[in-house]
Amino acid sequence: MMEPFQCWRDLLATVPGIGRHAAAAVISEIGVTVKEFFPDDAHLASWTGLCPGNHQSAGKRRSGKPRPGNTHLQTLLVECAWSAVRHDGYLKSLFHRHVMKNGGYRSATAKKKAIVVVAHAMIVIIWHIMDTAKPYHELGAGYFASPQDPERETRRLIAKLQALGHTVTLNPAA
User: Fold this and answer.
1) 26: helix, strand or coil
2) Gap between the Cα atoms of 135 and 167, Å rounded
3) Can you say whether the dihedral through the CA atoms of 10, 14, 20, 26 is positive or negative?
4) Are 129 and 11 in contact (CB under 8 A)?
5) CA gap 50, 62 in Å, rounded
6) How far is 124 from 80, CA to CA, in rounded Å?
7) Count of other CB atoms within 10 angstroms of residue 7
8) Local structure of 61: helix, strand or coil
9) Which helix (H) or strand (E) holds 57?
10) What is the mean pLDDT of each successive set of 10 residues along the chain, which is 174 residues long?
């Protein structure tokens, strides 16, 4: 039954953590023409139920439960996310970043929250693969370690030092 969709299944299998069977299950849930039903990746994430919850009142942001969504796809992507964080790369560094943000590796809640973040990232990656018909491009494990814009990072650090009362002069490196 997957023969007409074999090329799509192989494209989805390029994502770490997603195997051939998981790719087939994703295709069976969302189809191959995702742009027709979901105008952007946020709509697909919302439909899946993997978007972050939002509860704001009087300018305060409180803990928001995620939306109910497609339970078949949610559980599949969470299982794929657990597999993906075992491979070095962007998804593992994303997991590590959010675990440390939410309490560290000793906290089961922190790991569960972080794995939902990775599953959300995976559904966004899936939407882009299905939209562009290009395989997954690994951003690398050091994606969060190095600043994306060195000039912006320099300006930010200078402003931080000036706010602390220091005078900053820059000399070009030799």
Assistant:
1) helix
2) 48
3) negative
4) yes
5) 18
6) 14
7) 10
8) strand
9) strand 55-57
10) 85 92 92 90 90 78 75 93 93 93 90 93 94 89 78 90 92 78
SS3 of residue 62 by DSSP: strand
Residue 167 CB neighbours (<10 A)? 6
> For residue 54, which amino acid is it?
N
Supply 62's token pair: 């409180």
**Residue ranges per structural domain of the chain:** 3-141
| Pairing verdict, β 60-62 and 55-57 | antiparallel
Whether the full predicted model's pTM is greater than 0.85, yes or no, is no
How far apart are the C-alpha atoms of 174 and 63, rounded to whole Å?
49
**Contact between 123 and 41 (Cβ < 8 Å):** yes
Judged by phi (left if over 0) then psi (alpha if -120 to 50, else beta), residue 126 lies in alpha
**CA–CA separation, 14 and 145 (whole Å):** 24
- Give the tokens for residue 65: 């439960």
